[in-house]
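Backbone-to-sequence.
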């Protein structure tokens, strides 16, 4: 059984990683919890046993740790992932630090599990909004070959961490935001992460580049608009896809219904479609509102929702760890 570490164990995603490891009964010989000096000494319970959080240091991985799940931000990952890998540990990193590095596979287990084979000690977990999109798109790309994607996202405040969550909670009582640039309560903000020179935000660029890398389609035409909405948990996405080949809507539904990690929720006559309040706490990607886009030859509109802290982060990371130990 592997020795496992969670780095960033006290954060929102780190705690969820522990929940998911426990729920899925991931085999663990020894568990180590790391965080910054500020959180060191805190106690966290895992499988009815209390663990003390340790400060992450350069020698933290000198104990034969096999797998480390990192969710402590890009600067921590840049500093410590290579140190961990040099000691024989495989790092599954939830930050953006390594995602576009050519030496690092970027993996969604339902989409490109084979890419874990060429890891050199670091495997990157994609951005939450990308993960749920590619789970829904990959089976359709295999059958009809995607020509172009237009993403429009409606992203929950928890994607911005605990402080994003607090901004919404306080905002409904009229308290000014600390994390976001504007009030998020009773508002939507078309701005996630920083603006780049071309007018896109970094979140939008992540969706574009990561989709291409995960789907092995470097030239795929993709564009995105990413928006923060006053929802605690669960990112929603309107995805407009144009295929090379024609499709039948009933076939698309059948493919999605039978694809791993997807729950089809598409019964408009009964008001059934995915929504964040239903996706919260679940590990699957929910897909609905499927309809033809007749403004192009072979176009499809879809609505895709998932729990951003689970499938968009912790669950995907634990699934990668499961792939590693299943080899
Ligand atoms: C967000 N996608 O929702 C980001 C988190 N990685 O802010």
């Amino acid at each position: 059984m592997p020795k496992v570490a969670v780095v960033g164990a006290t954060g929102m995603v780190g705690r969820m990683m522990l929940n998911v490891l426990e729920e899925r009964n991931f085999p663990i010989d020894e568990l180590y919890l790391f965080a910054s000096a500020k959180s060191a000494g805190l106690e966290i319970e895992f499988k009815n046993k209390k663990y003390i959080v340790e400060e992450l240091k350069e020698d933290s991985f000198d104990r034969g740790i096999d797998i480390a799940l990192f969710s402590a931000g890009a600067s921590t990952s840049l500093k410590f992932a290579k140190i961990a890998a040099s000691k024989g540990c495989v790092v599954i990193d939830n930050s953006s630090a390594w995602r576009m590095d050519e030496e690092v596979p970027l993996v969604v287990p339902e989409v490109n599990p084979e890419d874990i084979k060429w890891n050199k000690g670091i495997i990157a977990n994609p951005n939450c909004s990308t993960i749920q999109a590619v789970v829904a798109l990959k089976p359709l790309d295999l059958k009809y070959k995607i020509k172009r994607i237009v993403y429009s996202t409606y992203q929950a405040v928890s994607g911005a961490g605990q402080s994003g969550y607090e901004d919404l909670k306080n905002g409904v009582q009229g308290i000014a935001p600390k994390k976001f640039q504007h009030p998020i309560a009773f508002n939507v903000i078309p701005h996630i992460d920083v603006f780049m020179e071309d007018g896109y935000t970094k979140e939008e660029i992540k969706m574009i580049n990561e989709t291409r890398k995960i789907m092995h389609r470097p030239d795929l035409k993709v564009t995105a608009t990413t928006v923060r909405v006053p929802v605690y948990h669960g990112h929603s996405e309107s995805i407009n896809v144009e295929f090379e080949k024609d499709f039948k809507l009933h076939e698309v539904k059948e493919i999605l219904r039978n694809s791993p990690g997807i729950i089809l929720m598409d019964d408009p006559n009964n008001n059934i479609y995915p929504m964040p309040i239903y996706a919260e706490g679940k590990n699957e990607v929910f897909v609905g509102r499927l309809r033809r886009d007749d403004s192009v030859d072979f176009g499809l509109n879809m609505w895709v929702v998932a729990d951003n802290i689970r499938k968009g982060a912790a669950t995907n990371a634990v699934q990668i760890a499961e792939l590693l130990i299943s080899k």
